[in-house]
Amino acid sequence: MRYLTGRTSSGSYDYDPSIGYYNLAAAHHEEWSLCGHSVDANNGSDDGGGFNMGREDIRDNWVYSGYHPYGKSQYWDNKQHFLQCDGGTAWSSGVVMFVQIPSCGDYPPGSSCK
Amino acid sequence: MSSSKRSRPFFVLAPAVALGLGSLFSFLAIGNLDRSSGASPALASGWTVEEASAFQEFPIYWVGDDFGGLPLRQIIRYEYAGDPTNTLYPTSEDSVTVEYGDCEIPPGAEGGCPIPLVIETDSYCDVPPERISDSVKTGPPVMLRGAQAQWMGDYHVRIWTGNVSIGIWGTNQQMVKDAAERLAGLNGSTPLRAGEELGPPQAMCAQRDWHWNNPPPEEPKTTS
Predict the structure, then answer these.
(1) Which residue from B2, B86, B128, B159 has the fewest beta carbons nearer than 10 Å?
(2) Which residue of A has its CA nearest to B78?
(3) B103-109 CB contacts, 8 Å cutoff, 24+ apart
(4) How far is B115 from chain A (nearest CA, A)?
């Protein structure tokens, strides 16, 4: 069995003692506006802003409705504010979620694994 | 558990990228911290300085109307109860954030551009020291103006003092250090002045589980 994984900018692999090797993805939700595409601003949003919405969408579709086991969460405090082209500001709640990616053989019988 | 299961890769969903690399700034001027000395700046949106000054739930910290040429951009009061469908991790927020300066989004860039200086004050119990993952800490905790502090990379520090937790994000380490030294109170009857001791944290928080439903960690993968 082979695994494909990304490397960090230094050429190494991301690793956490409690998790093992992992790949990092900055999931986010964007909306189209006249200036282009922009991450949904937190302020005024009922959904926690686009950076959180992206993570929750993966959670809903991969973990709640899919076959990817939840691993754990960590608080990284990555709450830097990012200005969007529509003038809004978006930031994360600082939480990262670890999701396991099973091999096809671990999926329930009859499920789609391509 | 089989070795094949131990070696499965994980996929981490970080809802925001880390601080972008910014240009180096040299701070020759320090912002005006005297709230009574002039008209309020024109802000992008959010609270006015006067509105923030009247806030009573916890002390708010800032570095004045201007910081080294970076004008006060916005003051954001943010209360988010969290996603009610979430059973895996807490996402609620309770903060007041002061943004300084603007940035230019490069053509085709994803996610926007980082605001040059961001100072977020949270209630202590929302972001206590024990919530911070060891994996993002840079070195051991340090003392900063008599307060407990933790660096996370070069451009980000969090400070715990009194009943609040203050996060500072900048575009270089010197900017963050300067901002930490210039932190002053924005609200309250006798706000802290820049340079005065912040003091240690003094908050009593209810016991909270910050990592809901976590299964026991698997053994780390070993490589040959």
Answers:
(1) B2
(2) A43
(3) B103/A83, B105/A83, B105/A84, B105/A85
(4) 6
